[in-house]
C-alpha cells in the first residue's frame, strides 16, 4: 500500500481551554482533493491552521512520511505544505513580485521561474509587479496569495475560501490550476462556501 500524502492522527486544537476540534483523524492520497464543509464555528479554518502549524495542537501530522508535528509553519512550507489562509493572505509592505518569491531561499525554487509561472497563471500581474501589496484590491491580493503557493507545486495544499474576492473567470482559471496540481499528485484540503464552486475539481466531501 502506498504511503498517504497527508496523515493527521488524533488532532485536537482550539483557541482557549476548550478545544474546537477533538481527535480529528484523516488521510489523503496523492492527488486527492477533500472539500471540508460545516456550519460557522465548526472548526473548518481551525483545522487548516492547525495542520499548517499556525495554531498549536496535539496529535500528529505527517506529510509523505515526514513528521511535521513539531515543525514551525515555514519549515512545513519548505517540506511541501502550501497554505492560503482566509485572512492575512499577503505581506502588505512588500511588492507583488516580492510576495511571489518570499520564502523561496534555500527551497530549490528559482525566483525568476516563480514569477514567470505566476505571470502565466495570472497575466494581470505583468502590469503591477512592483506595486506594494497594500495598494491592491481584495481580489488582487487573493490572486497573489494563490499564485505564491501554486507556483511551488506543493505536495499538499490547504485552501481556506480560495474563491473569495475573485470573479468567475478568474476562479475558473484557478480551478484549472488546482486540477492540474491534483493530476500531478498534489493532495489538497479546501474550505469553501458553496461546494458548487468546486465543480471543476474532482473531490470528496467531509463534514465537520
What's the average pLDDT?
A: 91
Q: By helix and strand content, what is the structural category?
A: alpha/beta
Q: What's the helix-strand series?
A: EEEHEEHEHHHEHEE
Content of β-strand? 15-25%
- CATH fold-level assignment of the domain at 6-93 and 155-207: Rossmann fold
Strand order of the largest sheet: 6-7-8-3-9
Shape: globular
Largest sheet: 5 strands, parallel
**Individual helix count:** 6
| Distance from first to last alpha carbon | 27 Å
Second CATH tier, the architecture of the domain at 6-93 and 155-207? 3-Layer(aba) Sandwich
Characterization of this structure:
By secondary structure, the chain is α/β, with parallel strands linked by helices. The protein has a domain at 6-93 and 155-207: 3-Layer(aba) Sandwich (Rossmann fold). The chain has helices at residues 44-52, 73-78, 96-101, 111-121, 138-150, 168-183; strands spanning 6-13, 21-28, 33-37, 57-63, 66-67, 81-84, 156-160, 187-191, 204-207. A five-stranded parallel β-sheet has the order 6-7-8-3-9, sandwiched between helices. The chain has a four-stranded antiparallel β-sheet with strand order 2-1-4-5. Helix 4 (111-121) crosses helix 5 (138-150). The chain is globular. The two termini are 27 Å apart.
Amino acid at each position: 500500500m502506498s504511503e498517504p500524502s497527508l496523515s493527521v492522527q488524533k488532532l485536537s486544537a482550539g483557541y482557549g481551554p476548550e478545544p474546537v476540534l477533538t481527535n480529528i483523524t484523516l488521510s489523503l492520497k496523492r492527488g486527492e482533493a477533500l472539500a471540508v464543509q460545516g456550519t460557522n464555528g465548526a472548526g473548518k479554518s481551525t483545522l487548516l491552521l492547525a495542520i499548517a502549524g499556525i495554531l498549536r495542537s496535539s496529535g500528529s501530522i505527517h506529510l509523505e512520511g515526514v513528521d511535521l508535528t513539531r515543525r514551525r509553519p515555514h519549515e512545513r512550507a519548505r517540506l511541501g505544505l502550501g497554505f492560503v489562509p482566509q485572512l492575512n493572505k499577503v505581506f502588505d509592505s512588500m511588492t507583488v513580485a516580492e510576495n511571489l518569491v518570499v520564502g523561496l531561499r534555500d527551497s530549490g525554487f528559482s525566483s525568476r521561474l516563480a514569477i514567470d509561472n505566476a505571470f502565466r497563471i495570472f497575466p494581470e500581474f505583468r502590469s503591477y509587479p512592483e506595486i506594494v501589496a497594500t495598494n491592491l484590491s481584495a481580489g488582487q491580493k487573493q490572486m497573489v496569495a494563490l499564485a505564491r503557493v501554486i507556483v511551488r507545486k506543493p505536495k499538499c495544499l490547504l485552501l481556506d475560501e480560495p474563491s473569495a474576492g475573485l470573479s468567475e473567470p478568474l476562479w475558473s482559471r484557478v480551478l484549472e490550476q488546482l486540477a492540474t496540481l491534483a493530476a500531478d499528485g498534489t493532495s489538497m484540503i479546501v474550505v469553501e462556501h458553496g461546494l458548487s464552486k468546486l465543480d471543476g475539481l474532482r473531490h470528496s466531501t467531509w463534514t465537520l
